[in-house]
Amino acid sequence: MRVLIAAPQLYIYGGAELVIVELLNYLSRNKIEHALLTTGVIPEIQRDITNNTECITLPFEASNDWRDLLKNTWLLSKGIRRHAERFDVINLHNCPAELAAFTVSKPAVWLCNEPPEVFLGGATASESVQKRLAKSLFYDIDKFIVRRFVRNVVVADEFNAARFQSLYGITPKIIPYGINYEFFSNPPETIPPNAGRFTVLQSGMFNPYKNQLETVRAINALRDKIPEIRLILAGFQGGAYFEEVKRYIDEHGLNDIVELPGHMNREKLRELYYAANILLHPVKSQGGWLSPFEALAAETPVVVSPEMTAAPMISSGALGTVTLDYAGAIMDIYLNRQIYKETARRGKQFVKDNLTWGQFCGKMVNAFEEALYHA
């Protein structure tokens, strides 16, 4: 079996990109012929992909508007048409890759991290009529292509499966992502000193779905109750939402409490997990799947939003705290650290037993085989 993995521009190294890297390296280790087709890849990602992976890159310059979406789709479609004959299965990642299935003559499997209506946001009354019409038309085209041309769809959890079913009328396969357990469960050689501070960490690019503003509000509410509190917001910065968060920090005099180190590579992120007393993860129903389980592998207690798509897994396994009362949860952990450390140890064992990249990638290969041999 020969697999072509196709994805739009890989310009940051987040969870969705890590999934692609792990899958490529699994295919390499298991001597499954494959290639990566993308409109761009940053050196940090390329460094982590084994030399056995053929990387087919297409020229692309981002303009940060709707033209990016259209150009990404056009280039991916063109690249797939050019190279599809060499492969048996096309594996599509990240919006708008699924639109390229329109030109695919081979079985297509879409790993849907998030459907376009989450990635782009549904049409709202606050937008211009033209933009609402354009979005609605785009979503209609997207649904037609997915229903007609995508053979198998994979999502990470029950929440995303139900959402996908409601949007497309298709029941996807559920394959939970893996976690680099061996990496995150081993303490780094150096852990950043906290100078007696009680450290709250949130990781992820600044985005309304990641909800960093709610984290900052919780810290502001606790600054007098926990004088030694500090917050680290690690993640890719930029855009109007980052400026909104920064403005709140400035207006409330939190600059000596809140640290903004920017995007972290995996090594630096591991150091932060071990330096933190809590991972606070108030994300909404988009992305952010890996961070709580990476933190648990490091035995760091986690607090997540009920909207976070893996919240049912964390709640049912009693692996962490699921709540909207972030300030209350932080205060409880501050007062009862040993109890929550035991909970985090239970979470660590759960990650080791259930969330490995080998399990995830093996099931993805099964999905490829099913698409190819059981059409």
Could you explain how this protein is built, in words?
It contains 15 helices and 13 strands. The chain folds into two domains: 194 residues, Rossmann fold (3-Layer(aba) Sandwich); 174 residues, Glycogen Phosphorylase B (Rossmann fold, 3-Layer(aba) Sandwich), CATH 3.40.50.2000. It is globular. It has a seven-stranded parallel sheet with strand order 3-2-1-4-5-6-7, with helices on both faces. Strands 10-9-8-11-12-13 form a six-stranded parallel sheet, with helices on both faces. 46% of the residues lie in helices and 15% in strands. It is an alpha/beta fold. The longest helix is centred in the middle third of the chain and has 21 residues.
Q: Considering the protein shown, what is the CATH homologous superfamily of the largest domain?
A: Glycogen Phosphorylase B
> Reading side by side through the largest sheet, how are the strands ordered?
3-2-1-4-5-6-7
Please compute the radius of gyration using only Cα atoms. Answer: 21 Å
Strand portion: 15-25%
N-to-C order of helices and strands: EHEHEHEEHHEHEHEHEHEHEHEHEHHH
CATH architecture call of the largest domain: 3-Layer(aba) Sandwich
Q: State the distance separating the first and last CA atoms.
A: 15 Å
What is the CATH topology assignment of the largest domain? Rossmann fold
Structural class: alpha/beta
Helix tally equals: 15
What kind of sheet is the major sheet? 7 strands, parallel
Shape: globular
The average pLDDT is 89
Keywords:
15% strand; Rossmann fold; alpha/beta; 13 strands; seven-stranded parallel β-sheet; six-stranded parallel β-sheet; 375 residues; globular
